[in-house]
Amino acid sequence: MTAIDARTGTLGAAGFLDRERIVARPGFNRWLVPPAALCIHLCIGMSYGLSVFWLPLTRAIGINKFDACADDSMLSELFASGCDWHFTNLVIVFTIGIVLLGLSAAAFGGWVERVGPRKTAFVAALCWAGGFVISALGVYVHQLWIIWLGLGFIGGIGLGLGYISPVSTLVKWFPDRRGMATGMAIMGFGGGAMIGSPLANLLMNYYKTSTSVGVWQTFLTMGAIYFVFMMGGAFLYRVPPANWRPEGWTPPAATKAMITSGNVHLNDAHKTPQFWLIWLVLCLNVSAGIGVLAVASPMLQEIFGGSLIGVPDIGFSKLDPDQKAAIATIAAGFVGLLSLFNIAGRIFWASLSDKIGRKTTYFIFFALGIVLYALAPSFAHMGSRALFVAAMCVILSMYGGGFATVPAYLADMFGTQFVGAIHGRLLTAWSAAGVVGPLLVAYIRDAQLRAGVERALAYDRTLYILASLLVIGLICNALVRPVASKWFMSEEDVAALQARAATTASGSGGSYGIGKGTLDGKAIIAWLVVGIPILWGVWKTLDSAVAIFR
Q1: What is the helix (H) or strand (E) element at residue 359, kind and residue range?
Q2: What's this model's pTM, rounded to 2 decimal places?
Q3: Rounded Cα–Cα distance for residues 58 and 81 (Å)
Q4: How far, CA to CA in Å, does 175 sit from each of 169, 249, 408?
């Protein structure tokens, strides 16, 4: 048996999950770490695709129709077992998950830094996969509160831990390419739904019968798949020895691209104005982007109506049920296309930020975003689907790019020692945006419709207001300056924190000379494991999105 270290909260020296046990030895290839992170993020990214389950679950009892409760209040549905659940009460699962993502990332960020990525990913796998298993039970016994508990609360904790588990490790393995490294991993979160949604549809169609919509069986199957993938990622993780750096790489001057050579302690980061400015930058960028994602399908349908199926003179309200079903399918392709650009933007913009700097990258996000949001209504009035869809795709690429670039932004500002924990606290901005963005967009749309505005014009004001949010974000980003020297830790304090890791490193060959960083056979296999599902998801997305332009 191993003992618990009272100071660090980690297992003793024999613990196979310990940070000390995963310090890389000479010869380790750092290109194995990004696919390990992708194994985690591709799984938890299915949180964006959970909506694929909501409509089937609204008829879990009625099978072919919605079987309403005698008392259709939320409280009644939480514990009812003989009637179907309303769509709105199912969507709350997503809201709970996103809120818990931010809260758990903030609460456990310090713990993640202490115990390392393997133990964090291990716990994340238990929570996320366990959330699917618990929710399967909830569907089987038909208790909504169990689904809220499973994929909402427990799954949400898994989301937070899984999301931040690789950040600090990747930044330390790729000090020469911080943006690219975090972009590669966080790209997976955007790609999870692109893979998981069509997979879920295939599984539900396989499992459904005359008495079951196939959701609980799908939950169990996907839970098992995610557990295996996430465990594979967890055990592939390695951390670099203290003071390691790529061979031949020299840290850039701090005066260039606003990159610090010091480290700010976790307990001090939130006391700086830079933390709260970047918090607002992320919150405003996410609020605008997630607002579009929240209404993407109805927005395309209501703006372009019959023109999507070759009858341009018929608005959405005048379409018959079959026509509405046809344009709903096209709108689903639009949502998939947005997801694809969300993914591509994470790696593209984060990699570009390595060249032009994080602050400049966010300037582009806000400046270009303001222009595109402001022009989108004009594109719609022109009836130009191509321009409208192109604008939305670029906007969503910058939404994803904002997520992928912010860890490197934080490392530039506060150093790498506590970047994972600081990033965890910053993700409370995502929790806030996940509530504010969709509610703001939905409220404005509904208010416009109640005022008698045509459906095709109901999104104009929404898009202008989202542009105004980006104006505020542009100002906040412009105010970001290098952190004052008073907040940096002394070299002695940093050395003390790294002492245990340095001791382990010296026992395994020293801090330098860990491989050449090229793609060897093992790295190629690891990339194929994550690359093949990504390519399958891209193909499925493009196959459904092509209908938009027919």
Answers
A1: helix 358-381
A2: 0.80
A3: 13
A4: 10, 9, 9
**SS3 at position 510:** coil
Residue type at 111? W
Query: What are the tens digits of pLDDT across the range 218-234?
Result: 999 999 999 999 999 99
Q: Which of 121, 255, 260 is nearest to 178 (CA)?
A: 260
Q: What is the pLDDT of residues 114-167, one digit of tens each?
A: 898 999 999 999 999 999 999 999 999 999 999 999 999 999 999 999 998 888
30-244+517-550 matches 257-494 in fold: yes
Residues 6+ apart with CB under 8 A from 123: 158, 161
First to last CA, the chain: 64
* Secondary structure tally for the chain: helices H, strands E: 21, 0
Q: Which amino acid is at 211?
A: T
CATH number for region 30-244+517-550: 1.20.1250.20
Helices 428-450 and 460-478: angle between axes, nearest 10 degrees: 150
Residue 185's SS3 state is helix
According to DSSP, residue 516 is labeled -
The one-letter amino acid code at 68 reads A
Pairwise CA distance, residues 476 & 15, whole Å: 45
Q: Which two tokens stand for residue 286?
A: 């996410």
Domain ranges of the chain: 30-244+517-550, 257-494
Q: Which fold has domain 257-494?
A: Growth Hormone; Chain: A; (1.20.1250)
